[in-house]
């Protein structure tokens, strides 16, 4: 599977604007909550241009709510955790990612199921998209494999093809790399990573 590659045809979930025809390596730098309210910044190598900014409850003031912005600060993706009694009793809590159109209207573009207990924490995290990508085969389109806290995990599609990989930085766990395959929507990938960051109590959590 490690050698699998996606077709270069764009897999646009948030926007085709964030689908590169080439493989892209992006650097993630987590921000300290005590100074900036947490979250993380995503930059492009080797220019260090800011591509995305991700904000959590330390900035937004609301638990279970995340925002992915572009490098200029425009909102791209709002991600919310579904709350309520039914969700509290469920094995899998659910998150929904909403994109914005040119008038600022939100629409659901993906849903993610979060393991809700210590014994389920090591199970695969699965994501479904709107519209569905798997052609109705199963209830998911993408899956996170490996361990995000160790910065060693992979996002694959429903055919097992690699979409993105999270890799350790050389010096600090606060800095790590994300390799996004050709044609894959980078904004979507970082929407998923924002949720993983929050699930495991990192920079976007309170």
Please characterize this protein's 3D structure.
- Pfam families: LOR.
- Belongs to the LOR family.
- This protein is 13% helix and 39% strand.
- By secondary structure, the chain is mostly beta strands.
- The longest helix has 14 residues, at 186-199.
- Residues 84-89 have low confidence and may be disordered.
Record the SSE blueprint:
Blueprint: E1 24-30, H1 33-36, E2 40-44, E3 49-55, H2 57-60, E4 65-70, E5 75-81, H3 85-89, E6 92-100, E7 106-115, E8 125-129, E9 142-147, E10 152-157, E11 162-168, E12 175-180, H4 186-199
Antiparallel strand pairs: 1-2, 1-12, 2-3, 3-4, 4-5, 5-6, 6-7, 7-8, 8-9, 9-10, 10-11, 11-12
**N/C terminus separation:** 36 Å
Mean pLDDT over all positions: 84
CA-based gyration radius: 16 Å
Characterize the largest beta sheet: strand count, sense, and whether it forms a barrel: 12 strands, antiparallel, barrel
Q: N-to-C SSE series?
A: EHEEHEEHEEEEEEEH
Relative helix content: 10-25%
- Unreliable stretches, pLDDT < 50, 5 or more residues? 84-89
Give the helix tally.
Answer: 4
The proportion of strand residues reads 35-45%
Strand order of the largest sheet: 1-2-3-4-5-6-7-8-9-10-11-12
Shape: globular
> Which structural class is indicated by helix and strand composition?
mainly beta
Strand runs, count: 12
Fill in the keyword field for this structure.
single chain, 206 residues, mainly beta, twelve-stranded antiparallel barrel, 4 helices, 12 strands, 13% helix, globular, Tubby-like_C, Protein LURP-one-related 6, LOR_sf, LOR
